[in-house]
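Good morning,

Attaching, inline, the backbone tokens for the sequence recovery test we're adding to the shared suite. The designed sequence is right after.
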């Protein structure tokens, strides 16, 4: 599949699935079903995967792309199947996935892909579900999927589904990803994970409380992540997003982020992106309707 960039050019045949950052993450408890109770802050980035959708009349759902994910783990197929079955849709779709977000990096790649699939097919299949209805479906696919349907930077509680919009400064983020896959399941099931952090308020976050309760454990289990944090901390406050292993630092100016990025050890993947308060997916929906670029 040809490489596309639906974030920076007028390619309206593709839809964005943006990456996200967790600007802080506190684990404040655990439900009886094993899900962890969280407080976190989500912000979208103008960087991510791109998806194309080719509708068919025979009901088959498939996915192909430059980096194909195994079918049984592919959240785009699961999302399309869930919407198809719940709404009684007889049409199918071939999903074209241009994968940019590293897997296992805590950037929400799979969740964002699933949300974009639900969002777009709700329109292309003429399902007509409201945003809250789509968010309810999205929660069945994973705790992070609803935020991408919601489409606003948000303070999140519960398992991540209780969302309050929050306005965040549009900083530039340098994101570095060491060559290691961090297992979310391993982190959340580990006996050393902090699960009893005290509840805080939005005002506490805005005043500088940005702890990630997963960071110390991830650094302990994955030394390569700690190396990235230690290196980036020379230039700015370095933080883990989600369960990692992506590490990010914030800069007011893009040029400053670029200067640091160009000095990084070359074995680390990474990118620079600006934080958005509204998801690029929602912007792109407006561009689609108007026939203009983003």
């Amino acid at each position: 599949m040809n490489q596309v960039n639906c974030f920076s050019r007028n390619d309206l045949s593709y839809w964005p699935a943006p990456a996200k950052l967790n600007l802080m993450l506190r684990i404040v408890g655990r439900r009886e079903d094993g899900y962890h109770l969280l407080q976190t802050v989500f912000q979208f980035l103008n960087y991510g995967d791109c998806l194309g959708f080719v509708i068919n009349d025979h009901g088959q759902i498939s996915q192909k792309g430059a980096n194909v994910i195994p079918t049984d783990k592919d959240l785009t197929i699961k999302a399309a199947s869930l919407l198809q079955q719940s709404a009684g849709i007889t049409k199918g779709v071939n999903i074209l996935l241009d994968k940019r977000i590293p897997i296992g990096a805590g950037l929400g790649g799979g969740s964002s892909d699933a949300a974009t699939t639900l969002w777009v097919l709700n329109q292309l299949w003429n399902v007509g579900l409201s945003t809250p209805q789509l968010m309810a479906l999205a929660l069945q696919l994973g705790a992070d999927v609803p935020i991408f349907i919601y489409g606003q930077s948000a303070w999140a509680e519960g398992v991540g589904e209780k969302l309050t919009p929050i306005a965040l400064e549009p900083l530039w983020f340098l994101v570095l990803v060491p060559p290691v896959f961090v297992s979310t399941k391993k982190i959340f099931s580990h006996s050393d994970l902090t699960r009893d952090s005290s509840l805080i308020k939005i005002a506490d976050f805005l005043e500088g409380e940005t702890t990630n309760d997963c960071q110390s454990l991830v650094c302990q289990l994955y030394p390569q992540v700690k190396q990235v944090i230690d290196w980036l901390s020379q230039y700015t406050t370095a933080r883990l997003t989600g369960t990692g292993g992506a590490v990010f630092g914030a800069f007011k100016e893009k040029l400053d982020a670029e200067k640091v990025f160009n000095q990084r050890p070359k074995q680390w993947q990474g990118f620079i992106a600006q934080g958005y308060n509204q998801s690029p997916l929602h912007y792109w929906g407006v561009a689609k309707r108007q026939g203009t670029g983003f």
